[in-house]
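Section 5: illustrative case.
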């Protein structure tokens, strides 16, 4: 069971974060990481060690050939090319040329981009904000996996995209992983957004709890919308929430409406994905005809049960 996303008001401070950090996809996922600080430190240690090794390799190779660094800075490989001399011979010159070429391309196109990206994102965030008991994590669809999904035929693309989104917003996955480990291609971590969110919190204009498992997406009007995935919970939680909604409607005397609801549910029971889509549409139409807002009812039911992030 799901409900329609809500349009984010233009004066909502969250838009400052979303606009500043959107990589051009028009969609971001946020969630709160409340795992123990010890776990966050351990999760951070793995990439830190990896990039420390990469930095050591870079410095080692750079120390072997200073001309390579100069060539990279000048964006001109010709500067690094070894000069041919008769005394050294052709084979030695070829060997030097190959080694120089490998060092140049390894440092410029692989090691240096990886190191600078880590230093200006993950490492920067930790140095500036440290490890917090409650942290906000953002992810955006980027990278090779995103390109692969977008290149699929329409039906396959939609299926792959939906599956990736379901995995990325899965409560069990997020609760059992922390920090860097919540990366779920094509949903990759966006550290800049976290820094902006902490700034809003420091200014006292936007509480971190508002970032709990949510999908922020631009609609056709280029307005940010919010789908609060945390409110759905698991199947058991959804069923419990629906029962509360039904009880509240029964107390309001909407027995005929509830009968129609049950009829639609029975009609599409145990259906495939197409049937589930028809079920969702049928219920949406029913609520619209009755003048009821399922989003509001869902929020009220959660409030009654005390289900807050």
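Designed sequence:
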């Amino acid at each position: 069971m799901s409900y329609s996303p809500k349009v984010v008001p233009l004066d909502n401070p969250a838009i400052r974060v979303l606009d500043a950090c959107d990589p051009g996809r028009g969609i971001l996922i946020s969630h709160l990481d409340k795992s123990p600080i010890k776990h966050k430190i351990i999760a951070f240690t793995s990439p830190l060690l990896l990039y420390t090794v990469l930095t050591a390799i870079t410095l080692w190779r750079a120390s072997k050939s200073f001309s390579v660094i100069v060539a990279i800075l000048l964006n001109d490989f010709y500067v690094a090319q070894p000069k041919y001399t008769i005394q050294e011979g052709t084979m030695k010159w070829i060997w030097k040329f190959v080694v120089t070429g490998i060092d140049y391309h390894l440092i410029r196109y692989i090691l240096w981009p990886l190191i600078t990206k880590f230093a200006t994102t993950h490492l920067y965030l930790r140095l500036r904000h440290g490890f917090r008991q409650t942290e906000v994590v953002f992810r955006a669809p980027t990278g090779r996996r995103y390109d692969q999904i977008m290149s699929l035929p329409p039906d396959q693309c939609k299926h792959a995209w939906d599956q990736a989104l379901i995995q990325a917003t899965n409560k069990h996955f997020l609760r059992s992983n922390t920090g860097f480990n919540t990366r779920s291609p094509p949903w990759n971590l966006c550290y800049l957004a976290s820094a902006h969110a902490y700034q809003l919190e420091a200014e006292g204009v936007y509480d971190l709890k508002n970032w709990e498992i949510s999908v922020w997406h631009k609609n056709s009007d280029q307005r940010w919308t919010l789908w609060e995935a945390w409110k759905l919970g698991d199947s058991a939680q959804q069923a419990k929430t629906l029962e509360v909604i039904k009880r509240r409607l029964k107390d309001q005397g909407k027995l005929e409406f509830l009968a129609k609801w049950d009829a639609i549910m029975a009609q599409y029971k145990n259906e495939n994905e197409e049937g589930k889509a028809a079920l969702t549409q049928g219920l949406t139409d029913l609520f619209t005809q009755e003048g009821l807002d399922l989003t509001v009812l869902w929020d009220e039911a959660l409030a009654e049960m005390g289900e807050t992030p």
